[in-house]
Amino acid sequence: AAVALRAFENELGVQDPVGFWDPVGFTADGDLLAFKRRRCVELKHGRICMLATMGYITPEVVGKFPGYLAPSMDLKFADIPNGLAAVSQVPALGWVQMVAYAAYCELSGPRTRAANTSDYADLAPGDYGWKV
């Protein structure tokens, strides 16, 4: 276990006085590919959280889309509250559409097969193959 912990002592983010800190023991086996995968996934999820935060703030600042969210239910975008209160206001078919789109995004693209650690062997953490 001591050798496995020392394998990651020179990674980005390791700082004194703590050094490499892994309280749960995810890196106890010293697997570099698994470590790299976790680092990539951590950055990806962090970016998703930043987008979600902007999605929460933006309607408060710039307003909401004009028009109807569900014309058959006479439900306008302006009628949907911000934040968690929106969960109960969006129609069920709206949630189905959002989940279907998220599944499409996850299952299409360059990483269509189930992710395993070898998929991350040639990636630098934070590099998803496109530039802004």
UniProtKB/TrEMBL annotation:
Keywords: Chloroplast, Plastid. The keyword Protease does not apply. It is found in: Plastid, Chloroplast. This is Light harvesting protein. The keyword Chloroplast applies. Pfam families: Chloroa_b-bind. Its main location: plastid. One of its GO terms (cellular component) is chloroplast. It comes from the Eukaryota. Gene3D superfamilies: Chlorophyll a/b binding protein domain.
